[in-house]
Amino acid sequence: MGSEHLERSYRQGRRWFGAAALIGCASAVVGSAPEAFGFAAPFQTSSTFSVDPGQFGIRAIATYLWRRGADEIAIPRTEAMYRISKNLEFDFSLPFEARSEADTFTYGPGSAELALGYRVLDAPDGSWLPSIGFAPQISLPSVSSQYGIGSSHLRGYFPVIFEKSFGKWSLIGNIAYGLNPGADNRDYVYVGQAISREVTDHLSLGLNAYYQSATSRTTPETAGLEFGGKYKLADKQHLYFSVGRAFLNASQTNQFRSYLGYQIVF
Q: Most exposed of 50, 100, 102, 145 (fewest Cβ within 10 Å)?
């Protein structure tokens, strides 16, 4: 097989993945910006829980991230959630990721993630106090790290989550610290605020603003906005979607990001 044929195959594969991203079949991966881990739908700023008590949920996700000189895709990313009790939930995820940079294209399993969501304070209805949760997450070393997919190190992400609802309006805030070991890497801080409103019985729309400090010597601090929502397909099926970009150091972190997720609960 000649070099011309290989180059043509590479370009065709890259166009296929790019088209998939435009229809939502692609998204950002950990190692880009923002660095917040998984289990956040549809924004990087996440709630404490994904399902109701006693429920088991599965979420199939496709995400895409574009920044200067690189495309990063996670397809499929699979997340599983089980709400053990009113105040406790366990989550697991495994992404398969594609990375296109310069003239290289790689695809493989990324870093598996484990999370435990715990509600510290359940604010009563009518109170101005928010509910407060803590959702520590760990990211396991990836077998594909030598190809730039996932990380070769055990990493951690520790968000404190504030949630409050006022009628059809909901507010979610995150303050998180990320442990990011490795040569030239840096531990980082993530701060995000999401607001959403129930537009109809089936549709909620919202906006997320975030800031994240530098995660490595070559990945600087960033801040940006995301717009998205949730659509109820059936009683136990939801579609999550969002698009966004950074406005601080965008070319090095996030010039465009999309998210599409389907969730079903049992």
A: 102
Q: What is the pLDDT of residues 156-203, one digit of tens each?
A: 999 999 999 999 999 999 999 999 998 899 999 999 999 999 999 999
Measured distance CA(106)–CA(257) in Å, rounded: 19
Which domain, by its residues, includes 46? 3-265
pLDDT in tens, 63-89: 888 988 777 777 878 999 999 999 999
Q: What is the pTM of this model?
A: 0.82
Number of domains in the chain: 1
Do you find a cis peptide bond into 76, omega within 30 degrees of 0? yes
Q: How far apart are CA 18 and CA 220, in angstroms?
A: 25
d(C-alpha 15, C-alpha 7), whole Å = 12
The CATH number for 107's domain is 2.40.160.40
